[in-house]
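[job 4417] fold queue: 2 targets
>>> target A
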Amino acid sequence: MSDPEKSIELFRQDGEEFRSVRASLRNGEFVIDTQDMGKSVEEFWGDSDYEFWTIVPKEAWGQLLMALSIEFLANDPSATDRLRDICLTHGVPHRWDRWV
């Protein structure tokens, strides 16, 4: 049985030049995909839309989390608090603890 798909739009630009960027969890993969539409797409690609994506398989999620930590939390003295806040905001199961 496959995991249910979860998806969220990360960015949207409407108008003559349209772009939508989505993040999804589907079939054990983390996917970020982009769809472009508009005059410049038609001129460059000769088609009404252009889609592209990056897929990270489940077995590489740990590596992805470490890479994202380096990119977005390195050199941040509040990294522990930021991670906890992100988990709380987005309903991510986590454990926070301390020595007393």
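>>> target B
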Amino acid sequence: MNKSQRVFRITGARTSLSDDVRGRQRRYVASMLLRTVCVLLAVVLWDVQRLVAYAALAGAVLLPYFAVLVANAGREKAPGLPSTFAVPTDTPLMLGPGGTGGGGASKES
């Protein structure tokens, strides 16, 4: 990709719903593939290393729960838009009507 084809994200819009769903599906499928590996590892190691087989079996049992939690976590939060101007922290706040500053009512006495 050359410089003229770069795409810059200039809004605070979220990713599209289809991209979000596709990403969650990929994470879920990856988790289920890892679960399959754990089950196969438990079967293969059952007579060789029983302790490792138990650990793999525990992973195969617990992984679906966490995979569903991750898949259903929902969409990411929309990023905040940048401020149009920066206000120093020592700037005094303006008061409302009746106050001494801002757009308050003027005192005529």
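[job 4417] complete. Note on B: The chain has two helices and no strands.
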